Every structure is written in structure tokens, then in C-alpha cells.
Amino acid sequence: MLTQMRIQFFHVCRWLLAASFAAALASAVVYAQAPAPAPKAEPDVLIFADGEKLIGQLESAKGGSLTFKSDMAGEVTVDWSKVQELRTSRPFAVITKSAKIVKRADTGQVPEGKLSMTDQKIVLESAAGPPHTIPVADLAFVVTQPDFDKAVSHEEGLLDDWGGAVTAGLSLVASTQESRTYTGAVTLVRAEPTASWLNPSSRTLIDLSGSYGTLSQPGTAEIKTDILHGDAERDQYFAPRVFGFARVAFDHNFSQDLDLQQSYGGGLGWTVVKSAAAELDLKVAIDYIRQTFALSSSNQSLVGSTFGEIYTRKFAHGIVFNEQISATPAWNNTAAYSATGTAGLALPIHKRFSLAMTSLDTFLNDPPPGFKKNSFQFTTGLTYALR
Questions:
Q1: Measured between alpha carbons, how far is 97 from 368 in angstroms, rounded to an integer?
Q2: How far apart are CA 78 and CA 88, in angstroms?
Q3: Pick from 227, 232, 221: which is nearest to 264 by CA?
């Protein structure tokens, strides 16, 4: 019996040894047939006018400056005028100031190739043709060739390229008086194309916000706050800074006896200021407005114009300031004009989270009797950036 067990054990060991050998042989064959890893790209070299040298990678360039990432110095932005020489090992695309780039445009007007620069002249060398020489003073953007090809061929889907933020706030008081206030907002933005060096073609904006609160005390009637707002806008660009738009907006404000205000309209917009740090848009529109109050005798339909502006400013350390003001005079009832103003500040906390402080001021010149014309709201909350 013992001998038989030894024989079986021997057969098992022999079988395991053979299986191990076969597995090792198969692994060796697969490894031998696997493609070799791609060689690491040669580093780019940046030489300043004073002879100082940086080794790393050229990331991009815009106007009169370039962005270079060095292992030693990190990411630096340098004026082209301070560069004596630049050599890269990767292909780039150079968009000149005279180039008119739109989505899926003929890329023949944009030279591509391995980039070098001396004497304030950029040379692009490509195997497809002779080198291109471009004065630094003529360039608008320099982007990597893969990023350029991806941007001009990108086909956006309905759910693609959305950005924005979600904000939520809460306040609770439990004492002789009990108070609860809930605030929230969702802001969605979709700008096409997403690359900043392409002329804008369209922009979609969606805003939803609300504030609900109650204040109660034994023996007294409950006091309620109920403010809701929603709007959507579609912008279509005719030129890099001129666009037409259509929009719809809905408002409810218990504090002004306003059950529902519906606004439908459209108009023209002009981007007066546009830079990496700030943007200012001016808008004018013609709107149809339907106001429904709890006091039905105050219900009315209005036709008017809206004049507004939207300003966004980015500060150091990721701080963002947003502000917009609009005024709507009604032409069929000149006493029924209205205005709104908002201002918000976002202070980064951690990664995509920020502390948001927002104020909203709504003015109705002709609310029902017993209600104030002005409604002001200030809220704080936690904001999460979607992109």
C-alpha cells in the first residue's frame, strides 16, 4: 500500500513538473513574440538668450510665450523673445494669426512637423514635404500634433464635453425657534469645440438653483422661503466674438407672491473681453414673459427687451469670481420692469471641491399689494466641479 502511494505521488510530481515546464515555455514564446516597448522620446532642449539651458518637454505656446516643462524647474512660461534656441523631438502643429481654423477644417493651412527655433524663426520639418519656416511674431498657437488632430476630427455626442458645478448648502437651528434652510444649484456648460485655439461654434448653458426654508415658533404662524430658478440658453457663433442665442427661463418666488414667471426669447451677444483670466459678454434680447401670481388679478403677459452682461474672472490659486446683471423693461406695460443680479465667489478647498459664496438680487417693480419689490438672498455652500 505504501509503495503504491509512493508511485502515485511520483506520477503527480512528474505531471506538475511537466505542466510547469510547458507554462514556462509558453510564457517565453509569448514574451519573445510581444512587441518591444516603444523607445522613450528624446527630451526637448530650451536655450535662453543668456545661455542657460533647460531639458524637458515643450507643452504648448500661445502668442508671445511658450510653456515648457522641465524635470528640474517644473512648468515655466517663457517669452519667445528670451529664447535663443529650441529643439524638439516630437511633432507639433503651428497655427498662425492669419489661419482661420474651424472644426473639421482643411488642415492643409496648418503646418506640422518636428519643431525647432533659432533667430526668432520656427522651422517645422516633416517627411511629407519641405520644411516650413514661420516667424515667431506670426504664430498664434503651438500644440502637439496628436492634440491638434484629435481636436479637428472630434465628433461630439449629446452627452460629451459637459462641464459645470454642483453646489449644496444646509442650515439648521433647533431652539425656541426652529429653522431649516436648504440651498442647491447645478450649473452645466458645454462649449464646442473644447480647444481654446479653435474658433467657437456653439455653447449651451443650463442653470438650476433653489432655496427652501422654514422658520417656526410655538404659537406663531410658520414663515416660509421658497425661491426656484431654472434657465437654458443655446448660443450659436457667427464670428469668434459675435453670437446669436435663444433661451428660456422659469422663476418662482414665494416672497414676492410669484407662482411662476415664464420667459422665452432670443437675441445677440458680443464677447467684449476674452482672455485666459477673464471674459465679458454683453447681450440684448427680445422676450415674451408670462407672470402668474397667487393673487390672480395681478397676472399679466409682457413683451420686452433684456439688456445684460456676464463677467467671469479667474484669480491666482484657482479662485473664480462670477457676476451677471440683467434688466428687462416691458414695452406693453412700462411699469412692469424687472431686473436681476448675481455674484459668486468660489474658493478652492481640495481638488474639485470649493467653498461657494453667492448672492442673488431680484427686483419686480409691480408685485401684488403687500409684497416688497426687492428680494435678496445670500448663500454659502460646498461646490463640486464636474470638469
A1: 56
A2: 16
A3: 232
- Least confident range from 127-131, 169-173, 375-379: namely 127-131
Instruction: Give DSSP secondary structure letters for 216-265.
Output: E-TTSPPEEEEEEEEEEEEEEEEETTEEEEEEEEEEEEGGGTEEEEEEEE
**Residues in CB range of 171: below 8 A, 6 or more apart:** 179, 180, 181, 213
**Cα–Cα distance measured from residue 385 to residue 387, given in angstroms and rounded to the nearest whole number:** 6
Q: Is-cis flag, bond preceding 111, omega within 30?
A: no
User: H-helix or E-strand containing 21?
Assistant: helix 2-33
59: three-class secondary structure by DSSP? strand
- Could you read off the pLDDT of 155-184 as tens digits, one per residue? 666 677 889 999 999 888 888 889 999 999
Label residue 69 exposed, middle or buried (CB < 10 Å: 0-12, 13-18, 19+). middle
Do residues 273 and 279 touch, judged by C-beta distance below 8 A?
A: yes
C-alpha cell at 244: 446669436
Domains with residue ranges and CATH for the chain: 44-153 (no CATH), 163-385 (2.40.160.40)
What mean pLDDT do residues 250-265 have? Answer: 94
Cβ–Cβ < 8 Å for 230, 261: no
Region of poorest pLDDT, from 122-131, 280-289, 328-337, 373-382: 122-131
Are 142 and 61 within 8 A, CB to CB? Answer: yes
Give the model confidence (pLDDT) of 298-348 as tens digits. Answer: 999 999 999 999 999 999 888 999 999 999 999 999 999 999 999 999 999
